[in-house]
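Sequence and structure are kept together here, with a separate record for every protein. An example record follows, reproduced without changes.
>
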Amino acid sequence: MSCPSPAPIYTLRGASAPLNTLHFSCNGRDTPLLFSGSAKGAIHVWNLNTRRAHQIVEGHAGSSITWVSTLQEVNALISQGRDMQICLWDLSEGRTEVMDSVWTGSVGFCQSSLLKSSPGHCLLAFAGEQTEEVKVIELPSKTPVCSLVPDAKHGMVMCIKLWQPDSGPGPLLLAGYEDGSLLLWDVTQRSKLCQVKAHPEPVMCLAFDPKHLRGISGSSEKKLSSWILDRQNNLQFQDSVMLVNPGVSQLCIRGDSKLLASAGWDHRDPRQRLLAAGSKDQRISLWSIYSERADTG
């Protein structure tokens, strides 16, 4: 029998709408922050010391926020909405100004992916106007890098992950598609390196550990699929992880590669490190699953 879920250490209230996406930001700040994006277009900036929202950003014309992240600059926020826009915000000194925006043309729910490429510059990957297209641009210039479209029909792109391998000239990108396929792309060469059929249903989410070259993906099934990337850039399945209930919307690997968190359709979300879980009940639960002393795995 599985162990009961631990109780959250705190619950943040006041989002006033179902929550779609969360992002921690602690680097370069005295105060740890949590950004949340809601179904009504509001981005709340939560102070994790006071456990209160100290800033609210209204954007995307009230459309649902599907993804938020932060750039290398301390007060630079990036958000993606169902209005087909990716917005870059200046939050310094209490501002809530859109500095720039990118039109994606995508009607799907695929979350974008950021990768630092050099000081002051990063790559942004996002689903494009074509059903199966992934576009990659350089920020802040918005210079196009490539457009990745598979030769065969795989349906809508569902999830993507950019990363820079330790060896090799350029970044790679993993993409999960509607037909259950996982494709690995070489961004620099604009070419597909390999593909596998990961699930019989759409790949709803994936997480990848670049250090150990292993990943995991989920769909509407009652299991997760784990896989590795070998030195020849081939994806190989390892094992399946059975779930209590079917359906996974998000996966996240902790920075030390020892813990995986999954957000399920059943509303279960498995020195102090926090896990944040947001849902349709308009609340954010903060969890401390393992402390440094207790973590022996």
Remarks:
- Residues 292-297 have pLDDT under 50 and may be disordered.
- The chain has no helices and 25 strands.
- The first strand starts at residue 10 and ends at 12.
